[in-house]
TrEMBL record:
Pfam family, one: Proton_antipo_M
InterPro entries documented for this protein: ND/Mrp_TM (IPR001750), NU5C-like (IPR003945), Transporter_DabB (IPR046396)
UniProt-recorded name of the protein: Probable inorganic carbon transporter subunit DabB
Alphabetical UniProt keywords: Cell membrane, Membrane, Transmembrane, Transmembrane helix, Transport
Oligomer status and interactors: Forms a complex with DabA.
Role description: Part of an energy-coupled inorganic carbon pump.
Residue ranges constituting the NADH:quinone oxidoreductase/Mrp antiporter transmembrane domain according to the UniProt record: 59-276
Length: 455
């Protein structure tokens, strides 16, 4: 089938997601920028970005896919610099511009390798000829390039700094970026999953790099006070988790993760103005910090629910996924167990029922998405265990930071995390040294002069 465009059931789902998020963000922007003289310019750039993302989704030709991928980056660049005189926005745009050009070069290499191997530019023909179990040198090169593109697009450490600094841009830009565009790395790997799965090296590279990024970024997010910065670090962590799921071959879980993360981050950023109200409401309600015994009870109950579901329906096929779902169920039950009073039994019954319903919805959605994706890559048991250990280490470190902050190694860990692991500082220095931005340097100099005059 020789067509520039192709719409599959998976792509229809993604287009539906884009339609919902796009309408919501455009509607929010229309109201939020009602007093801005440049509102038409912002809305034009926003619509161009959404249109470019749609073109990426429906493209069935390597060259068209690449051109749409470039268009997304260029239109996003205009949105990031909507307020061009902000130094941090300039820095984020500069770093994002350079990383985007690198990812586009790597994507071009990957597509060139695929065309050389299969002698066709049509993506559906390439995938039809690809086998999970067979790989050549050319397809291995393509898989590695695609993995690197996804790691860059999903802002994995140490290429994450621009994502944190983009919070300087207007709130709708952050919502669009975190809920949609940053997911393109995962979507790319889902579209070319057979290519990726054919290379064990590419899969291990994602598991190691994205797995480490998931743990570090997740822990760093717990040290942040600013809600937008916390959400940005959380996005880097969640994107790493999604990439790990794809590398393990858990495609339906990654797709479910993608949808849930998109809706959650869109809501979180667009509703970030109410953070103070939520904080005050929590204080008035009287927060109770859970103790270790509360965690023990929650973990035990979560394990019982999951074990019963596994015994009856065999819902879990991956050890890493089992650990992740177990910790999620335990976290859901924790607030009810923490606050103990006469209403606890009723609240606990409701929470347990809710946990069972969520687990049922999760397994049902995963089953249907597996049929929708139509891919069944073999699970690497060693990689599965490695990822499970990463999840356990993330949980253990977060518990240590919360309950034993005065222990010497925990103190050192907190300082390191509070500094963002110092990774972005090194990346920024290297970026400005190798590719200095004249406009950014001028803005920094002007900012320094203003601060000097004020002092």
């Amino acid at each position: 089938m020789y067509s520039l465009f192709l719409v599959t059931p998976l792509k229809l789902m993604l287009l539906g997601l884009i339609a919902i998020l796009g309408f919501t963000i455009v509607r929010y922007s229309w109201v939020a920028f009602s007093g801005e003289a440049d509102r038409p310019r912002f809305l034009r750039s926003l619509l161009m970005t959404i249109a470019a993302v749609v073109l990426v989704i429906v493209s069935n030709h390597l060259l068209l896919f690449w051109a749409a991928w470039v268009a997304v980056s260029l239109s996003l660049h205009r949105l990031i610099l909507f307020y061009p005189l902000r130094p941090r926005a300039q820095l984020a745009a500069h770093k994002k511009f350079l990383l985007a050009r690198l990812s586009e070069l790597l994507l071009a290499i990957a597509f060139s390798a695929l065309y050389t191997q299969y002698q066709t530019p049509y993506i559906n023909d390439i995938l039809a000829q690809t086998s999970f179990a067979h790989s050549t040198t050319t397809t291995t090169i393509a898989a590695i390039m695609l993995a690197l593109v996804a790691l860059i697009k999903c802002a994995q450490l140490p290429m994450h700094g621009w994502l944190i600094q983009v919070v300087e841009a207007p709130t709708p830009v952050s919502a669009l970026l975190h809920a949609g565009i940053v997911n393109l790395g995962g979507i790319l790997l889902l579209f070319f999953a057979p290519i990726l799965a054919s290379s064990a090296f590419a899969c291990w590279m994602i598991i190691i790099l994205a797995g480490i990024s998931t743990v570090i970024a997740g822990l760093v997010s717990t040290t942040r006070i600013s809600i937008k910065v916390k959400l940005a670090w959380s996005t880097s962590s969640q994107m790493g988790l999604m990439l790990v799921e794809i590398a393990l071959g858990l495609y339906e879980m990654a797709l479910l993760h993608l949808f849930a993360h998109s809706f959650y981050k869109a809501y979180s950023f667009l509703n970030s103005g109410n953070t103070v109200n939520h904080y005050l409401a929590a204080k008035l309600a009287g927060e109770v910090k859970p103790k270790v015994r509360h965690w023990s009870i929650a973990l035990s109950l979560g394990l019982i629910i999951l074990a019963a579901a596994q015994w009856e329906f065999a819902v879990m096929t991956s050890f890493a996924a089992t650990i992740l779902v177990w910790l999620a169920l335990s976290t859901l039950l924790l607030p009810t167990i923490t606050r103990f009073d006469k209403g606890t039994p009723a609240r606990l019954a409701i929470s347990l029922g809710f946990a069972v319903i969520l687990l049922t919805l999760y397994t049902t959605a995963k089953h249907h998405l597996a049929a929708l994706v139509g891919l069944n890559a073999p699970l690497n048991l060693v990689a599965d265990i490695v990822v499970a250990c990463l999840f356990v280490s993330l949980f253990a470190c977060s518990i240590a930071l919360q309950y034993w902050p005065h222990v010497s190694w925990v103190k050192r860990l907190f300082i390191w995390l509070n500094a963002g692991a110092y990774l972005d500082e090194w990346a920024t220095r290297l970026t400005l040294k190798l590719w200095p931005s004249e406009s950014l340097l001028k803005l920094q100099h002007a900012h320094w002069q203003v601060e000097t005059e004020v002092k």
